[in-house]
Design a protein that fits this description.
Blueprint (H helix, E strand, L loop, with lengths): L14 H18 L11 H11 L4 H14 L3 H6 L2 H8 L6 H16 L8 H4 L7 H10 L10 H11 L8 H14 L4 H17 L20 H15 L5 H9 L1
Length: about 260
């Protein structure tokens, strides 16, 4: 007999559920977001530098490198004109040096082929050296305030826990489904999308962390499909750790 294909999982987010999730998330972000330098600019070059530096690197490490790099190469043209050795020296210590090479190649391409203008649409951004789906969405959203989805490791973890615990976020099909969820959650306007995408990333970085999710302070537990499962596990662990009733004392009480 031919094997039956598994039924596709319906991961449609109801409009009212999406609205409630966004409302709680955005309110939390306005109160608890970190003051980061790349959140004070809409310059696509500076946004691009920050996004490439933040790939697989903690924010605390990036802060000093970001400032020093921009002091040395304040715009695309200064970076494009620099010798590769100088670019690598400015990146030294940050690691993953392919990012620096890609950024240098991107600067040369944009300044010579695109009149120094970094594209605003994700599709066009993905044509640039070193720019993948996430970075394209980030630059479109954070620099140009486009209504563009983005899914990095933090965002994938949040969306999987809240809306689809059954998904495997590191698998190709699972990640594709999470991108669809991210698109369903987008606000109507690009300006609000800036807040929304920053908030998703912040929640994954500060609260819905990989090792220890801090559910007690999470603003979206009311929407989270994983939260009841974690509560049930905790309750089961508490019951398992409870000492058994002492039969001797119980018999004494019954016969007294």
């Amino acid at each position: 007999m031919a094997k039956r294909r598994p039924r596709p999982i319906d991961l449609t987010v109801a409009p009212d559920a999406a609205t409630a999730f966004r409302r709680r998330l955005h309110a939390w972000f306005r109160k608890h977001s970190r003051d980061l330098p790349w959140r004070h600019t809409r310059d696509p070059y500076r946004i691009l530098v920050s996004e490439l530096m933040l790939q697989q690197t903690q924010v605390s490490r990036v802060l000093d490198f970001y400032r020093r790099f921009l002091d040395r190469f304040p715009d695309l043209y200064s970076l494009a004109d620099a010798r590769p050795k100088k670019v690598m020296e400015a990146w030294e210590g940050l690691g993953y040096y392919a990012r620096a090479r890609n950024l240098h190649a991107l600067a040369k391409h944009v300044t010579t082929e695109q009149d120094g203008v970094i594209p605003s649409e994700p599709i066009a951004l993905r044509e640039l050296p070193g720019v993948g789906a996430y970075t394209a969405g980030a630059v479109a959203s954070f620099a140009y305030e486009k209504r563009a989805a983005l899914v990095d490791t933090n965002v994938a973890r949040v969306l999987q826990r809240v809306f689809a615990p059954q998904l495997r976020p590191k698998s190709g099909p699972g990640l594709k489904q999470l991108w669809l969820i991210a698109e369903q959650l987008l606000p109507r306007t690009g300006k609000t999308t800036w807040t929304h995408n920053q908030a998703l990333m912040e929640l994954g970085a500060l609260v819905c962390t990989a090792r220890v999710p801090r559910c007690g302070i999470c603003p979206v537990t009311a929407s989270c499909a994983t939260f009841p499962l974690l509560e049930a596990e905790a309750a089961g662990a508490d019951n398992a750790d409870a000492p058994p009733a002492r039969k001797g004392k119980r018999r004494a009480a019954m016969t007294s």
